[in-house]
Amino acid sequence: MATSLPLAPDAPAPQDADPLAPPPFAPLRTERLTIRPLRPEDAADLHRLVNDWEVAKTLARVPFPYPRDLADEWIASTRMQMAAGHAWHLAITGLEQAGTPEEREVLVGCIGLTRDAGKREAELGYWVGRRFWGHGVGPEAAGRVVSWAFANIDVDRLVASALVDNERSQKLLGRIGFRETGDGVRDFVARGGPMPVKLFEMTRADLPAPAPSATPPAAPALADGPADAPGKKILLVAACALIDGDGRVLLARRPEGKPLAGLWEFPGGKVHAGETPEAALIRELKEELAIDVAESCLAPFAFASHGYEKFHLLMPLYLCRRWTGAVTAVEGQALAWVRPQKLADYAMPPADKPLVALLRDFL
Ligand SMILES: Nc1nc2c([nH]c(=O)n2[C@@H]2O[C@H](COP(=O)(O)OP(=O)(O)OP(=O)(O)O)[C@@H](O)[C@H]2O)c(=O)[nH]1
User: Region Disordered: which residues (predicted)?
Assistant: First the structure.
């Protein structure tokens, strides 16, 4: 178990919610688990599981014995922090058949992320109740939360720590993509003082690669060369800066499961075999945003040419001020209409950086 999950109330959450804070938390599901906000009625189960020396001794901020009232207070504080986009401390639950034909939801443990907005990073912490150990609950929950975090909260880095003698937790962190970065010392309330810990971190690039999508192949004219051709495959992607009546630009957030998930980008997508870039863009804008755009309303503006690790991106960027239909997030992606001067507040793929500078000067 990592050491950092606070089970004592934190300082009050900041009053002003961050404009980039994510929408209300929708429960995350894995094969066996549901990860959801803590509820007041979880307090008794939470207290029973964490008021266990074997669990409490691995957690930095948990007193032992753990007073029953603290469970109520802590759950209330987690709800405020989550509403402010400051921290997400969540219940890990599963279904159990308790001697009856009916399955019931049981609390298995807790998992949390605490954001450091200034550093664009968050700290991961978790614990699992002793009777659920040995079933892979920790990696299943933590892997899911980590993937959610990069796609939904404004972080570029996650950090975690584990006691030097807690090899189980160190292994878990390694399994989900964390890298060890060194040694540190942290105060452990239940142990009465400082203890040595191993420090870990991960970035978006450490996430396991998403499964390949089943979309048609990219345009072959650019992609195909002799099988042994040197250099990377060139990927042709068409993208568009939609500009509304107030001069704001539409950005869409890349959803969980895609490479670079969580970064903001110009709507668009890969040019398929046999398509022109304009036709690809018209198709993508319909599929992703439910709008109709005429080819004559797409004005070529600039292009990005950027070497990613596995391919070289060639991306024409068009401007579009006229379309029909209401812009709708068809795939549930987050959308933001952004003033040109504010574009730099949104983390975007590296290929987009020169385009953003050009757009800001032009608009
Ligand atoms: N649409 C779009 N893609 C961008 C931008 N910047 C950038 O690097 N890309 C890259 O271009 C590629 C576009 O691929 P994609 O996966 O979005 O294309 P798609 O919509 O056809 O997706 P799919 O193959 O999952 O259906 C990705 O590698 C993406 O990271 C941008 O501003 N807009």
Answer: 1-26
Query: 232, 240, 270, 283: which to mutate for ligand 1, most atoms within 8 A of CB?
Result: 270
Atom of ligand 1 nearest to the CA of 355: 32
Distance from the alpha carbon of residue 114 to the mean position of ligand 1, in angstroms: 29
Q: What are phi and psi of 231, to 5 degrees?
A: 85, 180
Over residues 159-205, the pLDDT tens digits come to 999 999 999 999 999 999 999 999 999 999 999 999 999 999 999 99
Q: What percent of the chain has pLDDT over 70?
A: 88
Q: How far apart are CA 224 and CA 204, in angstroms?
A: 29
Cβ atoms of residues 246 and 288 within 8 Å = no
Cα 223 to middle of ligand 1, angstroms: 15
Q: What fold does the segment set 28-206 form as a domain?
A: Aminopeptidase (3.40.630)
Domain 220-362 falls in which CATH fold? Nucleoside Triphosphate Pyrophosphohydrolase (3.90.79)
Q: Whose CA is nearest to atom 28 of ligand 1?
A: 259
Tell me the three-class secondary structure of 283-297, residue by residue: HHHHHHHCCECCHHH
The residue behind tokens 């036709």 is 279
User: Whose C-alpha lies nearest to ligand 1, atom 13?
Assistant: 269
Q: Give the largest CA-CA distance in the chain.
A: 70
Q: How far is 336 from 215, CA to CA, in rounded Å?
A: 26
Q: What distance in angstroms lies between residue 270's CA and the mean position of ligand 1's atoms?
A: 6
Find all residues with CB under 8 Å of 321, minimum gap 6, and list them.
Answer: 242, 243, 297
Per-residue pLDDT tens digits for 110-159: 999 999 988 999 999 999 999 999 999 999 999 999 999 999 998 999 99
Check residue 31 and give left, alpha or beta (phi > 0: left; psi -120 to 50: alpha): alpha
CA of 93 to the centre of ligand 1 (A): 35
Q: Where are the domains of the chain?
A: 28-206, 220-362
Q: Quote the CA–CA distance of 343 and 341 in Å, as a whole number.
A: 6
Measured from CB, residues less than 6 Å from any atom of ligand 1 are 213, 215, 237, 239, 258-260, 265-266, 268-270, 313, 315, 349, 351-352
